[in-house]
């Protein structure tokens, strides 16, 4: 199917205006297909002209334009020509559509816990034509009137309030103007918890088998929802406009969440089944605040074309962390941002696919999908933090409010946003935008012991960025100096600073977007000094500097491991504990250390986890996080088997199925989990999560027959869902000897691209990332992947996934060569 180009979208938007969408869906036709009838009322600025409608159906029964029939066979590659348009037009399409299994379009999933089916719509980025006929581009917004026929025992939810008019027949109230990709319908035996705040009806919904988890977590989620509404109303001075506010936790969701106006969908693994650390609740709370921010940034005002997606994502990211830090209990949420989101963004900046925050080239819709990454989210949010510092918060908020009010229910772009902000600021932002928004690349900031603070831009992307930041020094955990700095030149000398501190931290408050290089003395002191520093933001910056330093080959991974084993057991912030541990276990140890050091390094990490676990307060987040790390790294067969059997478990983890699966997967990697054991644990957990975990465990076994089975299921079984493929790919590369895994590097480049024949782009790109042969850190792997990237038959998303993962592999090779 051709992807809509920017030029085609611009021409179509100049020609037509869509006034009303009427969509009737029949979801009571079985598990494979559903009925879709669409009536579109639109006007044409040039009567007699022609355009095209987007529709990707199993079968189109009838098409009429202004009462005249059009033969369905006129549809070619998802496009239906509409010729000889009148000034005012009505087109109707009656079609049969297919449910998806890849998380795009109208996805249908069976819950193995009770064999109930659930449906949800995820029409991002260009999946709307698989559900209803439409003019599928973000700047042709229209009100939607939707009706749904469903099995009588089902509940229906959507963008408008759903009313059951007769058994099995539902009508959704007409919406305000929406972009096509924001439309959703969710249907199935969902269970609900309801509330109200400030005149806004609230609902949280989930699968029936998750009702206990829904009822357990709903009070906290409602609290964050209400606090976020209050904060946004105060800040934007524009009320939430979309009526009811429903939040639905749906199965097999590709993204974390999706900001459908009035009907936000979330990955239902956020309804934690067992013990949940504070960091997990923080992440979910931030996601709630993020999607709510989209009600203004994205939904009320939508980007005109995908190259301004930052107007959605950067703002939602920035506003969410601002809201959670100011309006909820999570006053320290920027710590998690620094160690999680910014590390994601810095990795995207180091990748060959790096791009500017704003105005990234998006000649067609599918190419825009590639730019939904850590740059559009984390870098964009960090840039907005710098803009607040540059403008002042009052002027920033005034500019944002003016932009929202002047473009509400319409579309905007970078130039219009800047115009509103410049009016509020009273000065030009042209140079600021050019440096921060329109130029790719991340600066490196370093502070020498002579007091020279330097800023180095990447040679490929030179930019004169003004950084507002601070520097601090610590000795024995005490802050011995602190200085605010405006870095306007490539370097500046700090006056009067006490630079004999044991550890010197540039960007100590993590206010700017820059990778930090620590001086040699500070690096050497980290194993003994890092855990003594009380400020969690400064510790986040230091941990981040260690991680990015390893990835950039400026920090010896052996020193990083020494720092981890010495400082991690004393780390008090569970977000730092969780994210740093994941970086070491998932990447630094298996990829950056030489093969002969990997086993001993794993033992050292398990030892740090055990020490932390044994010293933690019973039932604390610290005990939970260290228990999970121990469960995933230990080689103590007796402990692991006892935990799988439910014996000697840490407090609060009794009956925790997710923790049990962590243990079982470790046993599987150690080749200590036979079919009977996996089947027994799966029999005790007949949920979707249990099914996926069992797949991952089977794929994690190191034997050659197990790897062959897992690879065949991953690359050949078309019946596998998006989540099943992710589980198989994740488990596959978690174990096995290099000799056994090496052949799969060649099979990856030959087999994975063929999944495009039946798998949607969003799901396939994720599989291409997870299935990448990152464990085979060899020059031959580089050659294989480079050759594959040059192939013309790759989709753009798979090519980018391969290229970005290849850059990570090359980072590991560079580090090994440098520190050998």
Care to describe what's here?
The protein has 820 residues and is of the alpha+beta class. Helix content is 44%, strand content 20%. The chain has 27 helices and 28 strands. The strands form seven sheets. An eight-stranded mixed sheet has the order 5-4-7-2-1-10-13-12. It has a five-stranded mixed sheet with strand order 15-16-17-19-18. A four-stranded antiparallel sheet has the order 8-9-14-11, with no helix packed on it. Helix 11 packs parallel to helix 13 (557-567). The longest helix is centred in the N-terminal third of the chain and has 26 residues, at 211-236. The protein is globular, with a radius of gyration of 27 Å. 55% of the residues are buried. The mean pLDDT is 96.
Question: Topology of this protein?
Answer:
Layout: H1 6-15, E1 16-26, E2 33-44, E3 51-54, E4 59-65, E5 68-69, E6 79-82, E7 88-98, E8 105-111, E9 116-122, E10 144-149, E11 155-158, E12 162-166, E13 169-172, E14 185-188, E15 191-197, E16 200-206, H2 211-236, E17 245-250, E18 257-258, E19 263-267, H3 278-293, E20 301-303, H4 310-327, H5 333-350, H6 365-369, H7 374-391, H8 393-407, E21 410-412, H9 414-425, H10 430-436, E22 443-447, E23 452-456, E24 467-475, E25 478-487, E26 491-493, E27 503-506, E28 514-517, H11 520-529, H12 536-551, H13 557-567, H14 574-592, H15 595-615, H16 621-633, H17 637-644, H18 657-669, H19 675-684, H20 688-700, H21 704-716, H22 722-732, H23 738-741, H24 743-751, H25 761-770, H26 779-789, H27 796-819
Parallel strand pairs: 1-10, 16-17, 17-19, 20-21, 22-28
Antiparallel strand pairs: 1-2, 2-7, 3-6, 4-5, 4-7, 8-9, 9-14, 10-13, 11-14, 12-13, 15-16, 18-19, 22-23, 23-26, 24-25, 24-27
């Amino acid at each position: 199917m051709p992807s809509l180009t920017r030029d085609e979208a611009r021409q179509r938007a100049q020609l037509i205006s869509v006034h009303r969408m009427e969509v009737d869906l029949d979801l009571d036709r079985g598990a494979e297909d559903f009925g879709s009838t669409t009536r579109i009322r639109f006007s044409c600025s040039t009567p007699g002209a022609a355009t095209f409608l987007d529709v990707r159906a199993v079968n189109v029964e009838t098409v009429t334009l202004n009462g005249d029939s059009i033969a369905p066979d006129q549809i070619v590659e998802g496009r239906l020509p509409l010729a000889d348009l009148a000034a005012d037009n009505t087109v109707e399409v009656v079609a049969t559509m297919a449910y998806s299994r890849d998380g795009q379009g109208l996805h249908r999933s069976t819950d193995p816990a009770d064999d109930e089916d659930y449906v949800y719509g995820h029409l991002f980025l260009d999946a709307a034509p698989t559900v209803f006929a439409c003019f599928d581009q973000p700047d042709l917004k229209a009100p939607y009137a939707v009706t749904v026929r469903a099995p009588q025992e089902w509940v229906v939810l959507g963008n408008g309030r759903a009313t059951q008019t007769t058994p099995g027949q539902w009508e959704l109230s007409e919406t305000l103007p929406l972009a096509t990709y924001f439309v959703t319908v969710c249907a199935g035996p969902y269970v609900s918890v309801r509330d109200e705040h400030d005149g806004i009806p609230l609902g949280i919904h989930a699968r029936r088998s998750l009702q206990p988890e829904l009822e357990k977590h709903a009070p906290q989620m409602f609290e964050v929802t209400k606090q976020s509404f209050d904060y946004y109303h105060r800040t934007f001075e524009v009320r939430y406009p979309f009526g009811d506010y429903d939040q639905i936790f749906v199965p097999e969701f590709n993204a974390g969440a999706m900001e459908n106006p009035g009907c936000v969908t979330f990955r239902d693994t956020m309804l934690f089944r067992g013990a949940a650390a504070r960091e997990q609740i923080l992440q979910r709370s931030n996601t709630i605040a993020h999607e709510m921010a989209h009600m203004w940034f994205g939904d009320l005002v939508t980007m005109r074309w995908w190259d301004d997606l930052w107007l959605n994502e950067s703002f939602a990211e920035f506003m969410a962390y601002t809201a959670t830090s100011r309006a909820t209990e999570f006053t320290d949420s920027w710590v998690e941002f620094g160690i999680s989101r910014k590390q994601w963004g810095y990795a995207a900046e180091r990748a060959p696919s790096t791009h500017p925050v704003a105005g990234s080239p998006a000649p067609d819709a599918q190419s825009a999908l590639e730019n939904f990454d850590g740059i559009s989210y984390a870098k964009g949010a960090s840039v907005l933090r710098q803009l607040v510092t540059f403008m002042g918060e009052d002027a920033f908020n005034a500019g944002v409010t003016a932009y929202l009010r002047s473009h509400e229910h319409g579309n905007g772009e970078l130039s219009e946003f800047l115009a509103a902000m410049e009016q509020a600021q009273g000065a030009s932002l042209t140079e600021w935008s050019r440096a921060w928004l329109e130029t790719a690349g991340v600066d490196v900031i370093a502070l020498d012991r002579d007091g020279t603070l330097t800023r180095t831009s990447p040679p490929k992307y030179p930019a004169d960025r003004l950084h507002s930041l601070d520097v601090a020094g610590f000795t024995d955990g005490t802050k011995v100096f602190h200085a605010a700095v405006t870095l306007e030149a490539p370097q500046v000398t700090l006056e009067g600073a006490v630079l004999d501190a044991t550890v010197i931290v540039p960007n100590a408050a993590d206010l700017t977007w820059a990778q930090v290089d620590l001086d040699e003395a500070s690096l050497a002191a980290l194993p003994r000094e890092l855990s003594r520093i009380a400020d969690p933001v400064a510790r986040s910056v230091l941990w981040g500097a260690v991680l990015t330093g390893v990835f950039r080959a400026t920090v010896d991974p052996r020193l990083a491991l020494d720092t981890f084993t010495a400082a991690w057991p004393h780390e008090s912030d569970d977000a730092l504990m969780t994210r740093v541990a994941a970086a070491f276990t998932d990447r630094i140890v298996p990829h950056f250390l030489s093969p002969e050091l990997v086993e001993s390094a794993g033992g050292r990490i398990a030892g740090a986890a055990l020490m932390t676990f044994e010293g933690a307060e019973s039932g604390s987040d610290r005990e939970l996080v260290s228990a999970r790390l121990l469960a995933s790294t230990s080689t103590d067969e007796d402990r692991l088997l006892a935990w799988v059997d439910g014996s000697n478990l840490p407090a609060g983890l009794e009956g925790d199925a997710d923790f049990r699966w962590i243990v079982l997967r470790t046993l599987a990697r150690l080749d200590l989990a036979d079919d009977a054991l996996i089947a027994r644990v799966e029999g005790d957990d007949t949920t979707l999560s249990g099914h996926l975990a069992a797949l991952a465990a089977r794929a994690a076994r190191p034997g050659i027959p197990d790897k062959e089975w897992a690879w065949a299921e991953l690359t050949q079984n078309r019946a596998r869902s998006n989540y099943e493929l992710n589980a198989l790919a994740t488990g596959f590369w978690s174990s096995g000897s290099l000799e056994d895994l090496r052949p799969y590097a060649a099979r990856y480049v030959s087999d994975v691209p063929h999944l495009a024949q039946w798998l949607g782009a969003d799901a396939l790109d994720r599989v291409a990332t997870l299935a990448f042969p990152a464990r085979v850190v060899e020059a031959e792997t580089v050659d294989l992947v480079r050759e594959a990237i040059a192939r013309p038959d790759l989709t753009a998303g798979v090519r980018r996934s391969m290229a970005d993962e290849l850059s990570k592999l090359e980072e590991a090779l560079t580090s090994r060569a440098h520190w050998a």
